[in-house]
Write a structure and sequence with these properties.
Layout lengths: L2 H16 L23 H8 L6 H6 L2 H4 L8 H31 L17 H21 L6 H15 L7 H21 L5 H26 L12 H26 L5 H24 L7 H7 L1 H22 L1
Length: 329
């Protein structure tokens, strides 16, 4: 008789004496399976498909044109708001098309498998109907709205169509196309406001968006591997870290150069010297969240919800706002 048999025999005798004859489970306890996410109603699932949490990107980029408007021409606010609406419709259409194209790969990702189409909450036919409606609304808003020069939106849609059809699988080209989309938002905002685009500002926005897109790719690699996105096979974490550091430096330098052009004397030095700590802190904070906390999957959420970021941007806005007012008046 083994030690195990003796132990079982003793437990059986003890159970008989106490009147407990229920069978015992000697297998080790196991963790309960994770609960599936509750299914959403169709209207909520369709709303989630256009990713409303990503729409503030249009509000953060397009109004930059207002900073370069020395005077406020009639209809400036209306045209700028219409440009925001146009890019909101265009980006929503792109999200629907991308999720349709990526639905099979999204099912392999630990987070993206919960997206409406990949999870089955929105059927392919419903998504196509939503995309058709968005395309019709966008066409009507572009043809009959106050913004007549909307070629950046046409280029944006063409690039994203090519992106969905295969360019998203090409390493480096995939992140550059996404960043170009944000630069096109800036151009559209300036066209709507009737102002000239400053080269340094455009380069700064482009390189900043590259930082965020590369950070998102890094997060995807560390969280879900490379199986769900073929272009990730052309990257490695050290390579992405080098690219992020390069683009972060370009962003800060070109932003300060843009201030030198846009802020008039004698307040140029104040704007540059005052902005440098805020710009460097913002970039350092993002890199800290990306590398230390592993939180780089949703850059928009970081910019809007991280307390350190929000406080830094508010203080920075007060400094720049006061400097620009002093320079103009």
């Amino acid at each position: 008789m083994t030690v195990h048999d003796v132990t079982v025999h003793d437990r059986t005798e003890d159970d008989t004496r106490t009147g407990d004859t229920r069978p015992r489970n000697t297998a080790p306890p196991t963790e309960p399976p994770p609960r599936p996410r509750p299914s959403r109603s169709l209207p909520r699932a369709l709303l989630s498909l256009v990713r409303p949490g990503q729409l503030p990107k249009n509000l953060l980029v397009v109004p930059l044109a207002l900073l370069d408007a020395q005077t406020a021409p009639q209809g400036l606010a209306a045209r700028t708001a219409w440009a925001v609406l146009l890019f909101t419709l265009a980006s929503s259409l792109v999200y629907v098309l991308n999720d349709l194209s990526d639905r099979h790969r999204d099912r392999l990702h630990p987070d993206k498998r919960h997206r409406p189409i990949a999870s089955g909450q929105v059927s392919v036919s419903a998504a196509l109907a939503l995309g058709t409606g968005l395309a019709l609304l966008l066409t009507a808003a572009a043809l009959y709205g106050p913004v007549t020069d909307w070629w950046p939106i046409a280029v944006y849609l063409a690039l994203n169509l090519a992106y969905s059809r295969g360019l998203k699988h090409v390493p480096l080209l995939d992140v550059f196309i996404v960043a170009i989309g944000f630069a096109l938002r800036v151009v559209q905002g300036h066209l709507a406001g009737g102002t000239a685009v400053r080269g340094w500002m455009l380069v700064s926005v482009f390189s900043l968006c590259l930082v965020f897109v590369l950070g998102k790719r890094r997060h995807e690699m560390t969280a879900g591997g490379v199986s769900h996105r073929p272009s990730l096979r052309g990257y490695s974490v050290p390579f992405l870290d080098h690219l992020i550091a390069l683009c972060a430096g370009v962003t800060v330098i070109t932003f300060l150069l843009n201030l030198e052009e846009s802020v008039g004397a004698p307040h140029t030095d104040l704007a540059i010297l005052g902005s440098a700590p805020f710009a460097l802190f913002a970039m350092a904070r993002y890199l800290q969240l990306l590398h230390v906390d592993g939180d780089g999957g949703e850059p928009t959420r970081i910019l809007l919800r991280d307390r350190a970021m929000v406080v830094n941007f508010l203080l920075w806005a007060l400094l720049l706002g006061g400097t620009l007012l002093a320079a103009r008046y």
